[in-house]
Design a protein that fits this description.
The protein is built from 14 helices and 10 strands. By secondary structure, it is an alpha/beta fold. It has 2 domains: about 180 residues, D-Maltodextrin-Binding Protein, domain 2, CATH 3.40.190.10; about 150 residues, D-Maltodextrin-Binding Protein, domain 2. Strands 1, 2, 3, 4, 5, 6, 7, 8, 9 and 10 form a 10-stranded mixed sheet that branches. About 45% of the residues are buried. It binds fe (iii) ion (FE).
């Protein structure tokens, strides 16, 4: 009896040891990814990461706000290792809520332009852009001259009175753009510009970017702002009505003769309480590889963030996306200017 008891203790210790070991191994091979990106092409990218590293990816999908809410609720117990969010304004907001941790990676430093990342501290960099999208002007050539929409600044010119349409000024896409406009023009001129845009509106801000493009095509608006991937989606659409929309409008990459067109990012960060930190950094570095960049960018008709890489996207190329001057203001300034811009929007009545 005594022998048996001893044996069973030994056995359970052994099996516990085995269980512990395999749990440790399994844990070593896992990366928990919280993603606000949902493109089928991303699966190929993740499968390749798992095949080459042996690290299995557990993905939690959500929208940007849902992921941030979940991270806050989970706190230190959060299993999240890497977080994928869209737009610098959202990155900056999550960062300011303490949801990320800084990392140091010589590979990322070399691959990704500094203006597409958080502003570094002595501890490293919190978030990194992995694809870019440009915020462009779309206009109706029957009502608006190309020369009147060459810059963002002109959106406030009296020549465009009653013609301008945008989505909400407080939407992250606009907040990020406005934060860099204010950075370039200064507070006083920046706020005057926002007021001028409001004064030129054809109607109050509403809808998403695609709605603005359609509103230009329908004649409700003469000029609008949109991210480039929405334009590419309309161009690639199988619906004739979508392609008809694109036949009625023209696309301008603003500020080509001056500061360059505003670009924003979809990006990633290592979670504050990541349990698999090394794998998280490894995954971030993988996202900067030419292979992953092609999927990451093309999956949503975006541009690669890595220096010198180009993607083959005929829709983007057809609107001039294969070579344009980009604004080089660090997207990290969005952090500095976001609250200020929101206050300006309130003062000038930009809903
Ligand atoms: Fe979008």
């Amino acid at each position: 009896m005594k022998q048996l008891a001893k044996f069973s203790i030994l056995l359970s210790a052994l099996t516990a040891g085995v269980a512990f070991q395999s749990a440790a191994v399994a844990q070593d091979k896992v990366l928990n990814l919280y993603s606000a990106r949902h493109y089928q092409t991303d699966d190929v990218m993740y499968d390749t990461f798992t095949r080459t590293t042996g690290i299995k990816i557990n993905r939690v999908d959500g929208d940007d706000a849902g992921i941030v809410a979940r991270l806050r609720a989970e706190g230190a117990a959060s299993p999240a290792d890497v977080i994928l969010l869209v737009d610098a304004a959202r990155m900056v907001s999550a960062d300011s809520q303490g949801l990320f941790q800084p990392i140091k990676s010589a590979r990322l430093d070399a691959a990704i332009p500094a203006n597409l990342r958080a502003i570094p501290t002595a501890d490293g960099v919190t978030w990194t852009g992995f694809s870019t999208r440009a915020r462009v002007i779309v206009y109706d050539p029957l009502r608006v001259k190309a020369a009147d929409v060459a810059t963002y600044e002109q959106l406030a010119d009296p020549a465009l009175k009653g013609l301008v349409c945008t989505r909400s000024g407080s939407h992250p896409y606009n907040l990020s753009l406005f934060a860099t406009v204010v950075e370039r023009l200064g507070d006083q001129k920046g706020e005057a510009w926002l007021k001028g845009v409001v004064d030129n509106m054809a109607r109050g801000p509403k809808g998403g970017d695609t709605d603005q493009v359609k509103a230009v095509a329908s004649g409700e608006c003469g000029v609008a702002l949109t991210n480039t991937y929405y334009v590419a989606r309309l161009l690639k659409s199988t619906k004739p009505e979508d392609r008809a929309v694109m036949e009625k409008v023209r696309v301008v990459f603003p500020n080509q003769g001056t500061s360059g067109t505003h670009v924003n990012i979809a990006g990633a960060a290592v979670a504050k309480h990541a349990k698999n930190r090394e794998h998280a950094v490894q995954f971030m570095e993988f996202l900067a590889s030419p292979f992953a960049q092609d999927y990451f960018a093309n999956g949503n008709n975006e541009f690669p963030a890595v220096k010198g890489l180009k993607i083959d996207n005929k829709a983007l190329a057809s609107i001039g996306g294969d070579g344009f001057k980009t604004e080089n203001i660090p997207l990290g300034v969005v952090a500095k200017n976001m609250t200020k811009v929101q206050q300006m929007l309130d003062r000038v009545g930009y809903k």
